[in-house]
Amino acid sequence: MIDGHTKVCGLIGNPVGHTMSPVIHNTLAELFSHNLAYVPFPVEKDVHQAVLGAYALDVLGLNVTVPYKSKVMEALSQVDPLAEKIGAVNTLVRTEEGFKGYNTDMPGLYRALCSEGIRLEGEKVILLGAGGAARAAAFMCAQWGAEQVYLLNRSYGKAQALAGEVKEKTGRDCICPMALGEYGNLPEEKFLAIQATSVGLYPDVDKAVIEEEAFYRKIHTGYDLVYKPANTRFMQLVKKQGGQACHGLKMLLYQGIIAYELWNGISVPEHMALQVYEKLKHKMGIGDEG
Predict the structure, then answer these.
(1) Closest by alpha carbon to 237, among 99, 89, 128, 106?
(2) Phi/psi at 101 (nearest 5 deg)?
């Protein structure tokens, strides 16, 4: 029950009406019996003022979504080194001086992959995209020991810039930038593929960033960061060629869980994480096969 002692957390971004994050955080608050409520806050223009206002209103913590993950950094008192490296913040934690920024997307994705039995160490990876989600995935691959990452993007220049950044900030020269249409030049072997573009996201569900079957024959496992629909076109094409495929709902789950842990100074046990996951699936109408 909300009362005079209820702590408030929330999500800032634009738009935020579609968010599933309240399901994660309000379910965790219920499981832990925390007096905490999580709500979405649409921010039309001035994210700096929104952050200052949230701090003045004693908000415990915030998640940040598009289009503010980089812009919000200007409003923070501190930025965690990992978020600084990636150049994007998605979680704000209240401190005495102001909000401190973290990136839980990267560790959230790593936890999601691990929970699906997918390893990165020594793996050869195809990464599709070079936007915000792909940034987190590229740094994750470098940090967790992927042998080689072929970064395919419509704009070769953007892929090249991200590859250079990862090399400079991690000391690992493991990202090979390529134009999207050059996938035919990939080595003749099987890859883990991470789909980090917004192509195929609801309601545009009938598209994949690459449609040709020859590409999907190169994939042993496909992980789509898109989670709605639960069986994306990318996933369908991977499975059609005999590969395994997963959607991105567990990344959403774990990035949220890590944020909740940071706000409350706790560790969420895996059995609770799975309870929240079941609630998310139910909310989205995803069956047990998801």
Answers:
(1) 128
(2) -100, 140
**Inter-residue contact 52 to 22 (CB < 8 Å):** no
For 30-64, the DSSP string reads: HHHT--EEEEEEE--S-HHHHHHHHHHTT--EEEE
Q: How far is CA 25 from CA 63, 95, 230, in A?
A: 11, 20, 21
Does the active-site annotation cover 281? no
Q: Is the pLDDT of residue 35 over 60?
A: yes
Residue 287: is its pLDDT beyond 80? no
Q: Which of 69, 124, 250, 279 is catalytic?
A: 69
Is this structure's pTM higher than 0.90?
yes
**Rounded distance, CA 267 to CA 271, Å?**
12
Sign, CA dihedral 37-13-230-121, equals negative
Residue 1 reports pLDDT greater than 90: no
Torsion of CA 39, 43, 46, 51, to 10 degrees: 10
Q: CA 182, CA 215: separation in Å to the nearest integer?
A: 10
